[in-house]
Amino acid sequence: MNPDLERLHPYPFEKLGTLFADLPASDKSPVAFSIGEPQHPAPDFVQQALRDNTALLAKYPGTAGLPELREAIAGWLTRRFKLQQVSSDHQVLPVNGTREALFAFTQAMLDRQRSPLVLMPNPFYQIYEGAALLGGGEPVYLPCTDATGLQPDFDAVDESTWLRTQVLFICTPGNPTGATLSSAQLKALIDLADKYDFVIASDECYSEIYRERAPAGLLQACAELGRHDYRRCVVFHSLSKRSNLPGLRSGFVAGDAEILRRFLRYRTYHGCAMPNHHQVASIAAWNDEEHVRANRALYASKFDAVLDILGEPLKVSAPDAGFYLWPKTPVDDETFARRLKSEENVTVLPGRYLSRTVQGRNPGKNRVRMALVAELDQCVEGAKRIRALIERL
């Protein structure tokens, strides 16, 4: 078997299960802040589109996706990021959710004969690391701390590292930090990609959950530079968070046409075409913004209510975007999570499970990730229980 399989770390929720394994059952109702799975109802019109198109189950889907879906995605990108042009034929590729696409993309991109480096934020979405390891690359973890605005300090990366970099993963808005990269920061990264010949893979899955200002995107930064071929730049988007459709497994990759041409060839062998009825439902979702605005309003209400309870005791404020809180803990993160589960039956994810220790420092240590995905009343109840624990510590 592939020896790199042995290099994979346990998934964060596997570690969480081990942490809680010996805890007795609680008599309190559970509140889950641990997993970032949207709990708001899926849009009715998307569900109807699925029901109306079950006949398409009798047809094999094409790997490149329906032209109508690619056109809907290109139209959404153009409107959302103020782009002059996006070729639905050459610069857009539908995928079965970004988790699958991020992993597959890395396998297609890395030249393992050149000792490739894959740079990523730390903490990070674990798929970046696993994809790098199984693709024959070496992960390089860029710490995201308060001192760096909870995004990597790219100026701290030395030239020898950039020279071996083949893929740079960025996540904006960040998971778990919620921090965003500015257009100026994205443009600086594009300059680095040109100088050192690497690809920027921008995970923008949380871009539509924001409170005031829509976050900038990598293709938007390209367009502002007059770079309409999006050379060396690809973005990953999904309907999971934007439209509360995690089970639809629908997203897309967009950007550099030459990269996508070769990635499509990989995917043709990979066998990962999106089912046709999912594609039709996705067209409806990408073409509608009303449900997205309503979704943002729901998250805003939850942040206001939860921060009214926890903001002072945890010294935490709303993130730039996304649906996570990333507070520091009054005791170490594992102890906090374990006591919270044992005493209040509230589940949060220890920050160290989302990070790696580099040079003796783990930027997730003594933080926890709280996903405000449940309904408002559950989020309020969970926040009250967390506050009760803090007051006992």
**What is the H level of CATH, i.e. the homologous superfamily of the largest domain?**
Type I PLP-dependent aspartate aminotransferase-like (Major domain)
Please estimate the helix content.
40-55%
- Cα-atom radius of gyration: 21 Å
How does the overall form come out from the CA principal axes?
globular
Question: What is the count of helical runs?
Answer: 14
How confident overall, as mean pLDDT?
97
CATH class of the largest domain: Alpha Beta
The strand count comes to: 12
User: Pairing-aware structural class of the strands and helices?
Assistant: alpha/beta
Low-confidence stretches: none
Q: In the CATH scheme, what's the topology name of the largest domain? A: Aspartate Aminotransferase, domain 2
The largest beta-sheet arranges its strands as 2-8-7-6-5-3-4
- Beta-strand content: 5-15%
Kindly report how far apart the N and C termini lie: 48 Å
> How would you spell out the order of helices and strands?
HEHHEHEHEHEHEHEHEHHHEHEEEH
Largest β sheet strand count, sense and barrel closure: 7 strands, mixed
Overall CATH architecture of the largest domain: 3-Layer(aba) Sandwich
How many structural domains are formed by the residues? 2
Keywords: Aminotransferase, Transferase
Pfam families: Aminotran_1_2
Protein name: Succinyldiaminopimelate transaminase
Domain Aminotransferase class I/classII large: 31-372
